[in-house]
Q: What sequence folds into this?
């Protein structure tokens, strides 16, 4: 049994903390009196460099800063006839990217992003043969303050998966609430950010990347003080920072009642999926809900209380008993199944959507026989199961008795009810061992690598994001600052593949 400070404030601490430290810069920018903010709204045609003797091919060109993110800008121009063009942008310190149009256009729009802070970018507009038709400039701005310091400790470019790492963070410093999401590139530079201030939502929770839409769904954590004020608990944004969707405004707060906890998802059919925590006789337990995305009316729900006997306790014995503590839900409507991970049951459940029956339980008290095991084959207080066919990858926090965390993957045979331990990484033999009692994430990347997120409140170790090859070799690692009394806290991260072509 735990008290409410252990069950609820743990997550409130994670989502409501922030920090006051500047990011360290691997490059140097000399001091200058010039504006470094990227705040010049528009660069006019007079700033375009082109052949003075040639008939102009580009008209009404403007470079406009993105007020949501000064590491990006909007490029608009016209051509006399429809053309399929591309844009290259780069700086003396950053090779930059190319963006190409899919179809010929006469009114052209490019969103240029993925820049590093305080750099002078050259923008080149090119035809299909690569000929430069016009050039312009953009000075990227400052990162928001505060941002935690981070250090790229390992970077094997040849074996690291392409893409940007998307995450949000907390800190054990409680002075500020900071609702911000970040992306870093493979060199460890922050190249994107998004802030969203809401009177009812204190900070960000879960982040989910949609590769088809190139959008991000963000769960918003409502504070207890705003529990009676209606407000959205989720939004969807594009990479420019435009709001594509907002959840209905309802009262409630994080980890109780009608609000969500741990994982917030906007499904392909427009519905919303999350666990919500209910209280009965001082017992906290989870119900999984699938709601209409427009008005939050229930579509489907499943509760632990309908399938397991509730513990015998009372409010006289404890302020709160955290019984189920669900931290992950995955719904596959095409296959008619839902996967629910319970931290406190140390089990992953596969559930039939139509009947609500538990099809199997992966854990010490489940029906699987474990094979290929190295040491303890069972998960303990695990996070973030990723199901890919018959393979299940988890971030296995481990119990205090085991004393270390790991990444583990099972290959499941439902006919024989066997679970083969097909991958394990705990880093101890490499001097990278860790134990995170809370939080954590492991994602299989398109090239077979695994992205791992480590970061709870243990002040004796750094929070970090690192990448492993399929054979378990570390090839990339980003370390976050810490001191004797403060550190950055991480819950999850994702590696996204942007629609940008890197320039060499």
A:
């Amino acid at each position: 049994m735990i008290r409410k400070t252990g069950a609820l404030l743990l997550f409130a601490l994670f989502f409501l903390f922030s920090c006051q430290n500047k990011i360290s810069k691997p490059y140097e920018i000399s001091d200058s009196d010039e504006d470094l903010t990227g705040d010049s709204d528009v660069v006019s045609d007079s700033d375009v460099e082109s052949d003075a003797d040639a008939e102009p091919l580009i008209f009404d060109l403007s470079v406009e800063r993105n007020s949501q993110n000064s590491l990006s800008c909007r490029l608009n121009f016209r051509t006399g006839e429809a053309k399929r063009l591309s844009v290259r942008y780069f700086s003396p310190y950053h090779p930059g990217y190319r963006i190409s149009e899919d179809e010929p256009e006469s009114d052209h729009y490019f969103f240029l992003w993925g820049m590093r802070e305080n750099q002078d970018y050259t923008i080149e507009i090119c035809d299909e043969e690569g000929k430069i038709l016009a050039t312009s400039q953009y000075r990227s701005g400052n990162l928001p303050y505060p941002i935690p310091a981070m250090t790229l400790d390992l970077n094997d470019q040849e074996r690291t998966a392409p893409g940007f790492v998307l995450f949000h963070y907390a800190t054990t410093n409680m002075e500020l609430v900071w609702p911000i999401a970040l992306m870093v590139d493979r060199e460890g530079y922050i190249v994107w950010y998004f802030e969203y201030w809401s009177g009812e939502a204190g900070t960000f929770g879960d982040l989910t990347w949609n590769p088809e839409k190139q959008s991000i769904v963000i769960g918003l954590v409502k504070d207890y003080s705003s529990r009676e004020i209606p407000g959205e608990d989720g939004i969807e944004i594009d990479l420019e920072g435009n709001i594509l969707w907002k959840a209905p405004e309802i009262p409630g707060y994080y980890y109780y009642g009608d609000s969500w906890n741990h994982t917030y998802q906007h499904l392909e059919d427009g519905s919303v999926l999350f666990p919500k925590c209910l209280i009965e006789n001082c017992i906290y337990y989870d119900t999984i809900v699938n709601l209409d995305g427009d008005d939050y009316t229930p579509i489907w729900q499943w509760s632990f209380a309908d399938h397991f006997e509730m513990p015998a306790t009372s409010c006289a014995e404890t302020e709160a008993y955290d019984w189920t503590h669900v931290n992950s839900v995955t719904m596959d409507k095409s296959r008619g199944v839902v996967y629910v991970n319970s931290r406190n049951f140390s089990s992953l459940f596969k559930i039939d959507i139509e009947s609500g029956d538990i099809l199997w339980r992966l854990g010490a008290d489940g029906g699987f026989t474990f094979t290929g095991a190295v040491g303890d084959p069972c998960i303990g207080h695990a996070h973030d199961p990723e199901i890919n066919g018959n393979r299940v990858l988890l971030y296995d926090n481990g119990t205090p008795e085991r004393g270390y965390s790991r990444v583990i993957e099972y290959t499941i045979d439902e006919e024989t009810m066997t679970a083969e331990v097909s991958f394990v990484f705990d880093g101890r033999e490499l001097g990278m061992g860790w134990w995170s009692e809370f939080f954590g994430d492991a994602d299989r990347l398109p090239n077979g690598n695994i992205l791992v997120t480590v970061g709870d409140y243990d002040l004796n170790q750094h929070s970090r994001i690192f990448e492993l090859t399929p054979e378990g070799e570390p090839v990339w690692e980003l370390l976050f600052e810490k001191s004797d009394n403060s550190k950055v806290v991480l819950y999850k991260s994702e590696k996204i593949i942007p629609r940008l072509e890197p320039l060499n």
